[in-house]
UniProtKB/TrEMBL annotation, chain A:
A GO biological process held by the record: attachment of GPI anchor to protein
Organism of derivation: Brachypteracias leptosomus (short-legged ground-roller)
GO cellular component, one term: GPI-anchor transamidase complex
Residues in the signal sequence: 1-26
Name of protein: PIGT transamidase
Automatic annotation (TrEMBL), chain B:
Any one annotated GO CC term: GPI-anchor transamidase complex
Gene that encodes it: Pigs
Source species taxonomy: Eukaryota, Metazoa, Chordata, Craniata, Vertebrata
Presence of the UniProt keyword Endoplasmic reticulum in the record: yes
Name this polypeptide is given: PIGS transamidase
Family designation: Belongs to the PIGS family.
GO biological process terms held by the UniProt record: attachment of GPI anchor to protein; GPI anchor biosynthetic process
Species whose genome carries this gene: Brachypteracias leptosomus
């Protein structure tokens, strides 16, 4: 394409055409069928960090997969064509650097596992799902400059219970679902640029001006995602609209960068301020989480004065948000730019962290390079309610799981899972898939352990840096967590975007998806220079043997007459002369 | 690779009563073959056979030729012809016929026929017919443009490399660039415009390739050049020499077509920013271009669409703009024709070409495209297979899978069939066969198993065994040196004895 471009530009020719000006057709005021809403949520985290979550939602009242639509306005053409051509019903792609520390930071608005995560529901009309999946991952890898083309059958699974469609769906035949995680994937600027290019305003206007790569990647956690799903067009739900949701979450360590103070401002975090809304957006808002913690009010102060306050129950907690509406003209009356600042009125001790109801850890234990054990600890800190959780484990084939060693222990007693789905691995073709529905009693820790044996790989199968170890992707916990406060049924269309990706079934519980740490496992690794060393050594031995043998065969022996000696002898004789000793 | 192509064009020359030249060699009807040799380079040459059939008009054709105007006659005659692609029918009308306007002696219709005014004897008629067949089928320049990869540089005109390479399909993308959405809310009814103006042309072209059309609107997409302000006309100007720099920054925003491998034709409509409007394109002489558009060969076209500034400066922003699609599509369609190499060449003044009407191109223009694409496809297949053979020669131990081999066999067979069909004058089947040949040869060439990087080069194998070869070479070389020294000494010794 590059050379074609050059040829094209090189041969660029002027074209002179005679054009007749036709009559102007007045056809104004067509109804807009697509809309963009943008939103930034700033939430101070208990440990002193600040999480910033950007959400850009493009809604399009059109029927994409029929292929009938080929004229795009706000919806990016690259993704639209992909959805139409490959029969995608739902697509979720997340690229993440770092790990969301649930214990210290609380429940994330949208968590993603470290590396790249892709899960896709295909339309029932797709006959060869595996082929479409392969093609899709290759195209996405091109669009997002990520190594998604390394997704193949060895890291793809079809979960039966964990990943239900988030959008409209009739029937959930899980054969149409594919899920893959690449934990080794490193996310950087080259992934952010194509992601920003999908936004209608790019990074030229609106909230996206804050997305400056050098700041975003100077953070503790960076996660960017693309979610495409069909949604109801209206309350009656007779027609389908398509929703593209681009989210980006960053966590800034404002505590260490701000000289021990927990105050922050937009400028300090992004080195930019907001000057306008994206002119194409129908909604452009900044939310700041100013929920009073520990019943103490008026601890913090936000400037400038917010346009309004919004109260909502998010993930079982009552939250208060200061709202800045970038589309309201009064906001930019006093100053040309908006720099949201937050100051703490008095130093807050961060000793008492609110512990999230559900959190989990995972680690690998054991010694030596033959066997090991994966342990997962799931905490339910709810004081009186028990709830079930679906655990999904994907383990690569080169860790051979011993399923008979699977133990689940809660409060010293064995906990029998009410549903278990295990698909054993096949060498070099597919990974282990283990899905379990486990009941977590109130105020308990559940420990799940399983032993494995490390397989020997062929020498070409090792990754470029094999002594670094091999990653095992995060396990996924999906649960309906009982809420302490009952939630109102709010109008989905009007509520802030960050609440509406996961559908909530009723007011008494909310959906949480958590990812544990990815594991790094050492495999028996050969010395890769050994073949060359062996070649060198044997070659030298052979060469030396050959040399002396050759010498013996070709040498002619004859008696040497005593000569006057070489240079050394002459030198020695000169010295002897000086010393007065007879020469040699 | 050397290639000898034979192209056969069936041409029927039909004499209306009163137009038969007196010096015909044989009585009508008779057949005759005329040859033309086109030499592209030393090893590639194209021979064209014009298989002429001379006959008199039938009664129905005579009736059709009685029409008042040439256009009506053309429409009536179209119903009487066999519609096979590539064949031409030329009706010779009497010198005094009023069918053709004054001063016009050749009329080319919308389909595959032409009207020629008799007169000047057989020799004059022959030169005229030859000119006409070259216009309606192919000429030396159109064939060498199709084989432009084989023509040495500098032997081609600037226009020859303009048109698109032959491909199985093309993607046409219309993009509206609005760099200033705060001031201009631009709307275009592209769906209707595509159905109304572009689709008829593509329906006609569907014989040549598959087409897909889509459109997008890109905001904040700016040109790579800052236009120059001209005080006299109080407008902004883009000069011709800065146009090559316009496309690259826009290209980054256009987005590649991820879902298919066909070449993309881009047509961009650029609505300049409020601070840079009105914006006009200047040609090389500094005069403004009347269409305010330019095209880039093998890439697409760009048109600048200026928004009329409202009389009152206080008009509320953003300004609502509805694009006049007829004006835009006219330019884009003309550019599309140019990109496909369908520009009408310079013709002598006595030639009159019927305008193709709503369909955008005449039947014989389609034939021209098919001739050129068939020749180009065959040349591409031979180039692809030659480089594949070169690769296989270079790596002795490369593994050729059965499916790759069968693709190569299929490509060769299809290419040979295409050549045979071309020599017989069956344009349509020749084109189909050449398409199959291209598909098969590309599939074989791009097969992932034929990557030369998969194979160890021999010099690296040698490098691994250097620790063996080097110490072994030392005693051998030393003893060789010794032998040489001894031989020299032995030669010297007898002279010493003397």
């Amino acid at each position: 394409r590059g050379s074609g471009m050059q040829a094209a530009v090189g041969l660029l020719l002027l074209l002179l055409l005679a054009a007749a000006v036709g009559p102007v057709r007045a056809d104004a005021g067509r109804a807009r069928r697509d809309a963009l809403r943008e939103e930034l949520l700033l939430s101070p985290l208990p440990a002193g960090d600040v999480a910033a979550t950007f959400q850009f939602r493009t809604r399009w009242d059109a029927d994409l997969p029929r292929g009938a639509v080929s004229h795009y306005r706000l919806f990016p053409k690259a993704l639209g064509r992909l959805v139409a051509a490959l029969g995608v019903r739902e697509l979720h792609l997340a690229l993440t650097q770092g790990f969301w520390r649930t214990q210290a930071w609380g429940q994330p608005p949208l968590q993603a596992p470290a590396g790249a995560e892709l899960w896709v529901w295909f339309q029932p009309t797709v006959t060869d799902v595996d082929k479409a999946w392969k093609e899709l991952s290759n195209i996405l890898s091109g669009i997002f400059c990520a190594s998604l083309n390394f997704i193949d059958s060895t890291n793809t699974v079809t979960p039966t219970a964990s990943f239900k469609p988030l959008g409209l769906a009739n029937g959930t035949d899980h054969h149409l679902l594919r899920y893959a995680v690449l934990p080794r994937e490193v996310v950087c600027t080259e992934n952010l640029t194509p992601w920003k290019k999908l936004l209608p305003c790019g990074s030229k206007a609106g909230l996206a001006v804050l997305l400056k790569a050098e700041r975003l990647f100077h953070s503790s956690y960076h996660s960017q995602a693309v979610h495409i799903r069909p949604v109801c067009r209206d309350a009656s739900c007779l027609a389908v609209s398509w929703e593209l949701r681009q989210t980006l979450t960053v966590v800034f360590d404002s505590f260490s960068s701000g000289q021990g103070k927990k105050d922050w401002s937009l400028f300090k975090m992004f080195s930019r301020t907001l000057t306008d809304a994206c002119p194409l957006a129908t909604q452009s808002k900044v939310y700041v989480d100013i929920s009073p913690k520990n019943k103490e009010k008026e601890l913090l102060e936000v400037t400038p004065v917010p346009s309004s306050l919004h109260e909502a129950v998010v993930q079982g907690e009552k939250r208060t948000y200061a709202v800045y509406d970038l589309l309201s003209p009064s906001l930019f009356n006093t100053s040309r730019s908006l720099n949201v600042q937050l100051k703490w009125k008095r130093p807050q001790d961060s000793s008492e962290l609110p512990i999230p109801v559900l959190h989990a850890q995972r680690y690998v234990s054991g010694y030596g390079l033959q066997t090991g054990e994966i342990s997962t600890l799931i905490h339910n800190t709810h004081p009186y309610r028990a709830f079930p959780v679906v655990l999904l484990e994907t383990v690569p084939w080169y860790l051979r799981l011993y399923v008979h060693t699977l133990t689940i222990i809660t409060k010293g007693k064995e906990n029998k899972p009410s549903y278990i789905h295990y698909q054993p691995a096949q060498d070099r073709t597919r990974p282990h898939l283990l899905e379990m529905l486990i009941q977590l009693p109130a105020n308990s820790v559940t420990k799940i352990t399983i032993q494995f044996e490390r397989a020997l790989l062929k020498w070409t199968e090792y990754t470029p840096d094999p002594n670094h170890g091999f990653y095992v992707s995060s396990s996924v916990l999906s649960a309906l967590v009982p809420s302490i406060i009952t939630m109102k049924d709010t109008d989905m269309e009007q509520s802030p975007l960050f609440t509406s990706l996961f559908p909530s079934s009723d007011g008494s519980s909310y959906f949480v998806r958590l990812y544990t740490e990815p594991l790094l496992v050492n495999l028996p690794t050969p010395d890769f220079s050994m073949p060359y060393n062996v070649i060198c050594l044997t070659c030298t031995v052979v060469a030396v043997c050959y040399g002396s043998f050759y010498n013996l065969l070709t040498r002619t022996f004859h008696v040497e007459e005593p000569s006057r000696g070489g240079l050394a002898k002459r030198l020695a004789n000169i010295i002897r002369k000086f010393r007065g000793v007879p020469p040699l | 690779a050397s290639a000898q192509l034979q192209l056969a064009v069936p041409v029927a020359v039909v004499f209306a009563p009163g137009s038969v030249p007196g010096d015909l060699p044989k009585p009508l009807p008779f057949r005759d073959v005329q040859e033309m040799e086109i030499s592209v380079n030393l090893r590639t040459s194209v021979t064209s056979h014009y298989e002429m059939i001379y006959r008199r008009t039938t009664a129905r054709e005579e009736a059709a030729l009685d029409a008042a105007t040439a256009r009506e006659a053309d429409a009536a005659l179209h119903l009487l012809q066999d519609a096979s692609l590539g064949s031409l029918t030329m009706y010779v009308v009497p010198e005094t016929s009023s069918l053709l306007p004054q001063g016009i002696s050749v009329y080319v219709g919308k389909h595959r026929s032409a009207l020629v005014r008799a007169g000047g004897g057989l020799a004059a008629l022959h030169t005229r017919l030859r000119q006409l067949t070259q216009v309606m089928s192919f000429s030396a320049s159109s064939v060498s443009a199709a084989l432009s990869d084989r023509v040495p540089d500098g032997h081609l005109g600037p226009g020859a490399r303009r048109h698109l390479k032959s491909s199985l399909g093309y993607e046409i993308t219309f993009s509206l660039l609005n760099p200033d959405p705060k001031s201009h809310a631009v709307d275009w009814d592209i769906e209707d415009a595509v159905n109304r103006y572009v689709q008829p042309v593509l329906d006609k072209l569907s014989l040549v390739a598959n087409f897909s059309v889509d459109s997008q609107i890109l905001y904040y997409a700016v040109l790579g050049v800052t236009p120059r302000f001209d005080k006299e006309s109080s407008s902004f100007l883009l000069s011709a020499h800065s146009l090559p720099h316009v496309i690259n920054p826009v290209e980054a925003r256009l987005g590649s077509s991820a879902a298919s491998l066909y070449p993309v034709l881009n047509f961009l409509l650029y609505v300049p920013e409020r601070s840079h409007s009105p914006l006009y394109i200047q040609d090389k002489d500094g005069a403004p271009v009347s269409t305010n558009a330019f095209h880039s060969p093998r890439w697409g076209g760009i048109m600048v669409y200026n928004v009329e500034v409202p009389a009152s400066p206080q008009a509320s922003l953003p300004l609502h703009v509805d694009v006049d699609m007829e004006r835009v599509m006219e330019v884009f369609l003309a550019q599309l024709r140019l990109l496909f190499g369908l520009s009408r060449e310079e013709l002598p003044p006595e030639f009159l070409l019927e305008s193709p009407g709503n369909e955008g191109l005449a039947d014989w223009e389609l034939d021209r495209l098919l001739w050129a694409h068939t020749v180009e496809n065959i040349a591409t297949v031979s180039t692809t297979l030659t480089s594949l053979a070169q690769l296989l020669d270079k790596i002795g131990n490369i593994v050729i899978k059965d499916d790759v081999a069968s693709e190569v066999y299929r490509a060769v067979a299809s290419a040979q069939r295409a050549l045979a069909e071309l020599a017989m004058g069956h344009l349509h089947s020749a084109f189909q066969a050449s398409k199959e040949a291209v598909t098969s040869s590309e599939r074989a060439f791009f097969d992932p198993s034929l990557l030369h990087l998969l194979y160890f080069p021999d010099d690296q194998k040698f490098a691994i065994y250097i620790p063996l070869f080097l110490p072994m070479a030392v005693p051998i070389l030393l003893s060789l040196a010794k032998i040489v020294r001894e031989a020299r000494q032995r030669k010297k010794e007898p002279t010493k004895m003397d």
